[in-house]
Structure formats: C-alpha cells, structure tokens
Amino acid sequence: MTPSKYFLLCIASRFGKNVRLGQAANEAHLLKEAETFLGEAIWRKTENIEALSMEYWNLRKFAKDHERVSKEIEHLQGKFDVTHQQRAESWKTAKDSLQDLTDERKQILSQLDTLNRERDHIVSKAEDIRRNYHGLKIKQDVLRKEGDKLGEIEKTSSRLSEIRGDFDKLKQHREKIAQDIAEANARIQEIEVLANERKQHGKSKATESSQYIGDANQQISARRAQINALNSQMRQLYTDIGRHVSLNAPIDPECKIAGKELRGLIDVMAALRRSIQYNFKLAERR
After folding, report:
1. Among candidate residues 259, 250, 235, 210, the one with its CA nearest the CA of residue 80
2. Were 20 and a residue from 112, 222, 235, 279 both cysteine, which residue would form a disulfide, CB within 3.0 to 4.6 Å?
3. Do the beta carbons of residue 2 and residue 203 sit within 8 Å?
4. 286 and 159 in a common domain
C-alpha cells in the first residue's frame, strides 16, 4: 500500500475494519515467508554480523546435524531396501528350492502307483497259479489212487513242477516289488524331512530380515523426527535472520552486503511493512 492509497482509503470510511485487518494478516503472512526465504538464502553470509552471531552459529551446528542425520537415513534406507529385496528373494529361493523335491516326490508317487498295481497283478496271478496247482495236485492224487494212466500222471507231475517254478519266480518278483515300494516310501519320508528343513531355513532367514526391517523402520522414523525438528528450528532462525537483515540493510553495511543479491526482495519487504502499518491505522479509524 502506497501513502497516496492510504489517504484515499482514509476517505473511504465505508470499508469495514475486518477488511483492513484481513489485508494486514495476509500481508504479514507474505512478509514472514519472505523473511524465511531471505534468511535461508543468505545466512551463510552473516558470520560477521554480531547481532546474528547466535543465529548464525546455531545454523552452522544444525546444518551439520541435518547433514549427518540425512546421511544416516540414506544409509538405513539403503540397507532397508536391500534387506527387503533379500527377504523377497529368500521367499522365492525357498519356494524354488522345494521344486526339485516336489518334482521328485511326484515322480516317486507315480512309481509307487505303478508298483502297487504291479503287485496287485502278481498277487492275483499267484492266486490263479495256486488254484491251478491245487487242482492239478488233486488230479494227480486221484490218478494215483486209480492206479492207471501213468503217462497222464507224469505229465501232471511235470506241469506241477513248472507251476512251482512259475510261482517261485512270481514270489521273487513280488519280494522285489515290495522292496522297491519300501524304498520309495522311505525316500518320500526323507523328502518330507528335507522339505521341512528347507522351509524352516527359509522362514528363519525371512524372520531375521523382517526383524531387521522392523528395527530399521523405527530408526528411520526416529531420524526423520529429528530432521523435522531441525527443519523447524532452522526455519525459525532463517526467519530471524531474514527479518534482521531486511530491517537493517539500509543502515548497517554488513546487512547491506549480506542482502545485496536480494536487494529487490528487501525493498518489497519494506513496502509490505508499510502496507501493514497503513492497514492497521485504517482499522483503528473505524
């Protein structure tokens, strides 16, 4: 607000007090933002301004702390990301590591199905042979009792020997199949033990990763809270420096030098201060 506009507004008394106070509040907010911006831009140039010694050296300290904590966050975040990826890979590796066991178990179960069918077939065939054997044995006994047909008796005896041989072969085959079934079942049990061990190992690694991720999250959150606190403190110091330099630039050579590159902004801030004062004066006239 310029002086001429101020005098015109003095005449326009129909405008309400709240309008002027609202305008002043808006301008005060803009002024504070400008002070903060100015302070942040020039604070490193205020080392020789005695009145800002406390603000300058606090900012030097806070800036170092800010840099240190930011690096800690970056480091923790990096490890967090790597661990998170490792956990995902651990789950995938654990799942993949079971694939060979799953495939082998499926293959053995298929073999067991075939062996069981073959065993059932042998048992059925052995039962048929046993019936034939008993039938021929009865025939042999009857023929012997009748005392004739010696050729038929010899033929029957020969056939009985063949059947006994066939039965012995079936018995050996059945025993071999029984052994194969027992070995297959034992291997399935071994596979289940191995699969459980791999699952537990993968779960243990994933649990360790999850614990680290949880701890890292807490540490990152704590350091982000530190950063937020530092930002708040530094922002207030920026505002204090910007206010002091903008007010004293016309009369203090050190302030003038510090704010030289932003002289235009300092002039705007001076105009805002005058406008705020005029608005308050107009509000008082209501």
Report:
1. 210
2. 279
3. no
4. no
Q: Report CA torsion sign: 13, 16, 19, 22.
A: positive
Separation CA 266–CA 261 (nearest Å): 10
Give pLDDT tens digits along the chain (286 positions).
Answer: 566 655 555 544 445 567 778 887 888 899 999 999 999 999 999 999 999 999 999 999 999 999 999 999 988 888 877 776 766 666 666 666 677 778 888 888 888 898 888 888 888 888 888 888 888 788 878 878 877 677 777 887 888 888 888 888 888 888 888 898 898 888 888 888 887 777 776 666 666 666 777 788 888 899 999 999 999 999 999 999 999 999 999 999 999 999 999 999 999 999 999 988 888 787 776 5
Mark whether 35 and 59 lie in a shared domain.
no
CA distance 187 to 109: 10
Tokens for 242? 């910007």
Is the sign of the CA dihedral 229, 230, 231, 237 positive or negative? positive
Handedness of CA 148, 149, 153, 158 (dihedral sign): positive
**Quick one: 160 and 93 in the same domain?**
yes
Q: Are residue 34 and residue 174 in the same domain, yes or no?
A: no
pTM, two decimals, is 0.56
Q: What is the CATH number of the domain that holds 115?
A: 1.10.287
Find the Cα–Cα–Cα–Cα dihedral 123, 127, 129, 133, rounded to 10°: 140
State the Cα–Cα distance between residues 91 and 207, nearest whole angstrom: 11
* Domain with 14 in it: 1-49+252-286
Contacts of 109 (CB under 8 A, 6+ apart): 188
